[in-house]
Design brief:
The two termini are 35 Å apart. It is globular and about 75 Å long. Strands 11-8-7-12-15-18-16-17 form an eight-stranded mixed sheet, covered by helices on one side. Helix 7 crosses helix 11 and helix 10 runs antiparallel to helix 11. By secondary structure, it is α/β, with parallel strands linked by helices. Helix content is 32%, strand content 16%. Helix 6 links the parallel strand 7 and strand 8. The chain is built from 16 helices and 18 strands. The chain folds into two domains: 68 residues, no CATH class; 349 residues, Rossmann fold.
């Protein structure tokens, strides 16, 4: 395990003392009650698991506080042979051998202390120990846990310019930008463009934004369109109102939203400055919502965080020497204008559930409220979740979500991926694909084999949190059927 001590220390908000069945431990948490790490105090009878310094890199909060694993997740001895050999050598070596190994390790772990720098240590030449901290909302397609592997694959082909074709919350774009790559970020969602402008294009001073944020936080509450449609009273634990509809926020926060959103339009801000402030607003709302991370439905009972009062903070801005680009358009039209060395694609794949009805909620509809907050256009809404009418299933469709087959007998989603790769001019492509997508393993294998030379393939099993590389043969087509896995393909075209 490698971690940034100063970052973990700075982010620690409270330390809780707990007594287990046999042994004591101290657990460290951040301001949002996110787990950071723990120290276990076991006596001489304790085993290795009952004492020492521990964290869990499966937890998003631990990753955000600077912890990462040199074993690519939990140790899989078949996939970490170098590490096993290193440990085996350490167990039988002399005292001098131990001392020499420790000196090498000291050299290897200096690089993570330098913020946002890649490292290729002497003992582990193919691993990136540290990756930049990124920021974003809860998101069904978030690639936060995949970031180390995406960056590792990209590092192998050493691009100068990276095209993030389906940027979403822009976490991948943020990471590449902080590592020194020029980034071209694109997504058809307007809220993604706002995130991109905030993190990739901002050159403003943090103090400038802090004054604006302070001003917005002190605004008095007011009833408005957002409160009318999306604000609910505490009602004990129930989030349902008299109209029978559940709500995503409690009324004290929608009243703040109404006041703040109206004021933002009155401020004399340019496009990028406004994007930073709107990003701050969305992040604040995300911290007090009562959802599972999307807005196609809401929780029956208020989430504990929804009782908190919304407070805006300056987003985690960073400096970048490169001149990045932020685009917002259909991927098939945008890609023809893009010149990049590496393209990263993570399309919104449809479900492979045959029982999924044709009228299912489209991916674009999951985040309709972020769109409405950005545009502040008070649109017509429908349904129990009060979605925008322009996010209805017939209007907000994506070729990558299609569950139907074309006249050729192939799934439209597979044909869309094939078309995307054919139109891409980048020499290298990293394609992210979920095993829950519509394409079968055999179809995906055949299509990718014809699209270019496969340089590497990574499988991340979310259920077991195991990351493994597989041989580019039919071996992986058997693995994909096991479910809940994310696949990363590095392709040379």
């Amino acid at each position: 395990m490698v971690f940034d001590f100063e970052k973990a220390k700075e982010n620690t908000a409270k330390i809780c003392f707990e007594t287990g069945k046999q042994h004591q431990k101290f657990r460290f948490y951040d301001k949002l009650d996110g787990f950071i790490c723990e120290v276990r105090y076991g006596d001489k009878k304790a085993n290795a698991l009952q004492r020492g310094f521990w964290t869990d890199t499966k937890k998003e909060s631990a990753l955000q506080h600077g912890f990462t694993s040199i074993t690519k997740g939990w140790v899989d001895y078949s996939e970490n042979r170098l590490l096993v050999e290193l440990f085996a050598h350490a167990l039988i070596t002399t005292r001098n051998g131990h001392a020499k190994a420790l000196e090498n390790l000291k050299i290897d772990i200096k690089a993570p202390k330098k913020k946002c720098k890649c490292m290729t240590p002497s003992m582990f030449p193919d691993l990136i120990f540290n990756f930049p901290e990124t920021e974003g909302v809860k998101y069904a397609g978030s690639k936060l846990k995949l970031l180390p592997y995406i960056l590792q694959l990209a590092h192998k082909v050493k691009p100068k310019t990276v095209f993030d074709g389906f940027a979403g919350t822009t976490r991948v774009s943020q990471a590449f930008a902080q590592l020194g790559y020029k980034v071209i970020s694109n997504d058809i969602a307007v809220w993604s463009k706002i995130f991109g402008l905030c993190y990739l294009k901002n050159r403003g001073d943090r103090k400038f934004y802090q004054e604006i944020i302070d001003q917005l936080n002190f605004l008095p509450e007011k009833d408005g369109w957002f409160t009318e449609n999306y604000g609910g009273l505490p009602n004990g634990k129930s989030s349902s109102e008299n109209d029978g509809f559940k709500k995503p926020w409690q009324i004290h926060n929608t009243r703040k939203l109404d006041a703040i959103r109206e004021e933002i339009d009155k401020l004399n801000l340019d496009e990028i400055e406004k994007a930073v402030v709107l990003t701050s607003l969305i992040l604040a709302l995300d911290r007090v919502d009562s959802t599972l991370g999307h807005f196609s439905s809401y929780l029956n009972e208020w989430s504990p965080r929804s009782f908190n009062r919304m407070k805006l903070k300056v987003p985690r801005l960073f400096e970048s020497e490169k001149e990045h680009e932020v685009l917002s358009g259909d991927i098939f039209k945008t890609i023809e204008k893009v010149d990049a060395d590496l393209a990263y694609f993570d399309p919104p794949y449809g479900s492979n559930n045959e029982k999924m009805p044709p009228s299912r909620v489209r991916y674009a509809a999951y985040y309709h409220l972020w769109t409405t907050i950005i545009l502040n256009d008070k649109p017509k809404v429908f349904g129990k979740a009060k979605r925008r009418t322009d996010t209805s299933d017939t209007l907000a469709s994506s070729a990558f979500e299609e569950f139907r087959k074309s006249d050729s007998g192939r799934f439209m989603a597979v044909e869309a991926i094939e078309k995307l790769l054919a139109k891409t001019s980048a020499k290298h492509v990293i394609l992210s694909y979920s095993s829950s997508g519509k394409a079968t393993a055999e179809e995906l294998y055949e299509m990718l084999s014809q699209s270019g030379k496969m340089l590497d393939f990574v499988k991340v099993d979310y259920k077991r949190n195991v990351m493994a590389t597989m041989r580019w043969t039919n071996e992986w087509t058997r693995e994909i059927e096991k479910g809940n896995q994310e696949l990363l393909f590095l392709i040379q075209r």
